[in-house]
Amino acid sequence: MADESPSGIDALAGDVIDYDDLFSKFRSAAGVDDRELALLAGLSSMMLVRDGGDGARFAPLIEFRDGSTSFTPNLLTDEDVAILRAVRTSNPALRARVADVLWELVTGRERIEQVHAAIDAYLEIAARADWYESEELLHRAISLALRFKGSDAGERQTRIHTYIRDAIDADAVDPGELLSLCELLRTVGAEPDDRDPVVAVLAAARAAAAVAKEYGLERNLIGELLPWTEDEGDRHDLTSQVAQLWVAEADSRLQGPQASAFVAASFLESAIQVLRSIPRKHRDRLDVATRIGQLRTRMRDLNEAAIEEMVAIDSPSFTVQGMSEQARTAVSGHSVLEGLLRFTRLVPWASEPEDRTAAEKILEGTITAIIPETSLTGDGRVADKSDADDAVDRQMGHDAQLHRHIVTIGLILPALRALRAEHTLSREMFLQITHASAVVPPGHENLFASGLWAGWNYDFGVSVHVLTPRIEALMRHHLNAAGVPTTHLDGDGTEDEISLPALLDKPEAGDVFGGHILYELQSLYAGRFGSNLRHNIAHGLVDDSIRRSIVAVYAWWSTLRLVMVPFWNRMTSAAQPASDGPDLDESDSDEK
Asked: Sign of dihedral through CA atoms 108, 113, 119, 122?
């Protein structure tokens, strides 16, 4: 058994405050009969989910196909609770995790004591750790402090407020940290005397970004200035300036060796969307109608080239050995945008010719190729029967599911966890991405952002239900833009929309989206031997197990990749592979 003294746990944990590292340490040391260390390993394995609600704030590391999960608090027994109540450690990360789990499992004064212990430990981590390691924990501390502020007369809320203001006033933070600190200050409760100092610091950071022509950063800084700006007219002036920054960035992307009509078109579309958000009573003063008209004229000239650039895609190769470490290395230590770009390029698009050849080789000379197969639904009904003529397609479907399982467990989830450890993305950040993406159909930006943000927070059940219909809208929009009809007339003259499987079968779809993307969408969303996700979602044939199923995670990731397509050509030096990570330059596309 583990040493029951504080020094026993502390000797093992040391000064480590990263939960991944703590999980590895305790899992290795626990053995088969050390319940205390096994519990600490389990607690360290969980992921803290932002805005997940008090009842679901800790997500399990993994959920299996049968619905079972790795460690979660609801697996704790009364004996486990007693063991955790006896844990004594100087490690703030362990203290925070133990207390933040226990407060819901105890009553009376002890409940409040555990809440206070968790908040205090989170603040201690913030004072010791790098910013990206502590921001999410500060959000959790604020949530607890606000909920239980009556238990200490708001004393911990005030301490957090002071900590954040001190960090802002120190003027020693980078712009990304400044943006997060300002958001945290608003969340914990800004005071009247916070406004002028915060606005001054934001304005100075914006001026520096303007000089450096860091358009995205300047837009983000303006976005944070907006809630601190009291005058309505001044707020809409700032909004107008955001639109002009999109135009300026579009102009920059039409020049030089990295010129891209695709990216420029997406930026002009974003400028139009921003201008449309300005209320009517301010539009004449800001000349909104004229500006939108001019931008739409430019958009018409760029749209055809922008759509064609959708197929200019490259992706990495990867090795099975050490793939999780490669994935983490590939996305770590970069800006938010570059990290997301690398994340979406971890896995190449599937290739239909290569998969077919592989399936034929697997079946060559085997009895499997001639044996009919019956597929059953989850409740035992016959869903499909296939014969020898379907053997290759059937094998391709099986191989695709296996491939998704391997890359999701080995690459996508480890990389996502590494990204979340370094960056905190709000729904508004995803909304900026969807507004900036020419792939996203106009008017669908909010829904795409909501689905992508849900997946970022490990709520893949919500994500897949929101994004699956968006894929159909995306297909329809770009096929229409290419002059391909997406409706059909019934005998009575009724004009109906064609469903996603039929859209994917359109001969022109390959020309618009490229063979690899089309094949990936068919395998994932339609077809007898694919995941048939569109059918299952549309007809309510999935249950709660979809929340952390492999197919839901992969569908979220692949949608993020599609949305990020317009940004790929922006990468120059960022496209170079890390020395010990996957090769980020190797192409997987036959459309280049």
From this structure: negative
Answer yes or no: is pLDDT of 57 > 80. no
- Give SS3 for 141: helix
pLDDT in tens, 264-276: 877 888 888 899 8
Tell me if 535 sits within 8 A of 499, measured CB to CB. no
Calpha distance 205→357 (Å, rounded): 55
Q: Give the span between the Cα atoms of 460 and 465, in whole angstroms.
A: 8
| pLDDT at residue 578 is higher than 50 | no
Asked if residue 49 lies in contact with residue 58, where contact means CB atoms within 8 angstroms, the answer is: yes
Spatial contact of 336 and 423, defined as CB atoms under 8 Å apart: yes
Q: Are 18 and 133 in contact (CB under 8 A)?
A: yes
The radius of gyration computed from the CA coordinates of the chain, to the nearest angstrom, equals: 26
Q: Identify which of 450, 471, 437 has the alpha carbon closest to the alpha carbon of residue 269.
A: 437
Alpha-carbon distance 118 to 520, whole Å?
45
Strand partners, 13: none
Count the Cβ atoms, other than its own, within 10 Å of residue 279.
10
Q: Which of these, 92, 89, 71, 75, lies nearest to 23 by C-alpha position?
A: 71
Q: Give the burial string for 101-124 (b: 16+ CB within 10 Å, else e).
A: bbbebeeeeebeebbbbbbbbbbb
Q: Is the pLDDT of residue 83 over 80?
A: yes
Distance CA 141, CA 158 (A): 12
The CA angle 454-552-536, to the nearest 5 degrees, is 115
Distance of CA 153 to the CA centre of its chain: 37
What is the helix, strand, coil percentage profile of the chain, to 5? 65, 5, 30
Q: CA dist 64 to 430, 542, 549, 583, Å?
A: 28, 15, 7, 30
Residue 586, pLDDT score: 32
Q: What's the token pair of residue 389?
A: 């003529």
Place of tokens 């739409």: 296
* Nearest residue to 115 (alpha-carbon basis) of 135, 141, 86: 141
Amino acid at the residue 470: R
Angle at 342 between CA 340 and CA 347, to 5 degrees: 115
Three-state DSSP string of 363-426: HCCCHHHHCCEEEECCCCCEEEEECHHHHHHHHHHHHHHHHHHHHHHHHHHHHHHHHHHHCCCC
Phi first, then psi, for residue 356 (nearest 5°) are -65, -45
H-helix or E-strand spanning residue 47: strand 47-48
Residue whose pair of structure tokens reads 């990304």 in the numeric block: 176
Strand locations in 336-490, DSSP E? 373-376, 382-386, 487-489
3-class DSSP state for residue 383? strand
Measured distance CA(4)–CA(27) in Å, rounded: 17
In Å, what is the CA distance from 511 to each residue of 27, 151, 384? Answer: 50, 63, 31
List helix spans (H) across 320-374: 323-331, 336-344, 352-363
| Pick from 446, 496, 505: nearest CA to 470 | 446
In 223-336, DSSP assigns E strands to none
d(C-alpha 575, C-alpha 578), whole Å:
9
Q: What is the residue whose two structure tokens read 């996305």? A: 331
Residue 64 pLDDT level (bands cut at 50, 70, 90) = low
Which contacts (CB < 8 Å, 24+ apart) does range 181-190 have?
182/224, 182/228, 183/224, 183/426, 184/135, 184/138, 184/139, 184/142, 185/161, 186/227, 187/139, 187/142, 188/142, 188/145, 188/146, 188/157, 188/160, 188/161, 188/164, 189/146, 189/157, 189/161
